[in-house]
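Re: the pair you flagged

First of the two:
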Amino acid sequence: MTLGDWRSYDGIADRYDRVWSARFKAVARRICALVPPRAGDRVLDIGTGTGIVARTLSECAQKPGLIVGCDPSVGMLLRARAQVAGLHVLAGDATALPFGDESFDLVTASFVLSHVRDYRKALREVSRVLRPSGLFAATNWAPSSDPYSAAWSNCLAEATSRLEAERALEEVAPWEGHFSQPGALEAALSRASFVPNRSDTVTVESDMTVDRFLEDRELSSGGRLGFHLLGIEGWERFRAATGKKFQARFGFSFRYHRDALIAIARRQG
């Protein structure tokens, strides 16, 4: 990472897939199983990042006719376009989608709504670009309940302060706590006049070394702000000290898991 704008995903695009893609792809595969695109469907993936959901949908048995990835991060879109054959990418804001009315049969937003400050406006935009009876799939992480995440949060709070850790999440993902609660995605979709279709929960498991877990957390909103506040040398000292604490408490590796919530809804029409 660099000491530029810590909120920007451009700065972590080169590490995003290596660190996070396996977990995101597990959820993307479940989305594909729940709402497999039909041959010829027009699909929009909002907040596509490096194209993990788009790539998974493109690999379905019935390939959609068009897949478009939309994201505000140009750095992420460049990686997505390079990695997903046939993917069309466009930089854009979820609250002002640069597409015409009723343009898509399926819209996905995986781990995205929690990052959009005016998510209600984003949902109105999803409804606008979906064709009548088109489907929308949204996901969010459930609350973390593992000792590793709790230990990381405590270490980061000691290094930067609890208030700074809370600020990081508020600035990058202001609705994370809200949408992590069971039923919150479905309630938001219902209020936006979508018709709930199906809900599901996926448990994503990973074998983690301490170094890999710390790299994972370094890319989180709190980790990026912590790096920005502590500087390169300060962050290196923090990470080394935290690694020793983790190894003393958990050993050199452990099994990490977290649930992902999935909500599927249909546009009225």
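Second of the two:
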Amino acid sequence: MDHLLMGLLLVMVLLAIYCPALPQAVGACLRHRRRETLACPETESPVSVQVDAACAARTAICGRPLLRVQDCTRWPGRMGCAQGCLAKVA
């Protein structure tokens, strides 16, 4: 019984810590779940980019979300680029 009570208290503490940031995480995930057409800074041509929404959501809990490309129409040939196109993502 003591283990159950301790587990419940731990869950309550974790929820109290993360709940204030939960709306930011959900918002970041929803904002970045769709592909976006952006201008590639290397070629100045339009590319279709998928932002890693899960990473954006996880990092939004601690403040500003970290944006990184999950998929791009220029990949795999240009995989590992500087991802400068993300500067234009809201």
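Strands lie at 36-39, 46-51, 69-72.

-B.
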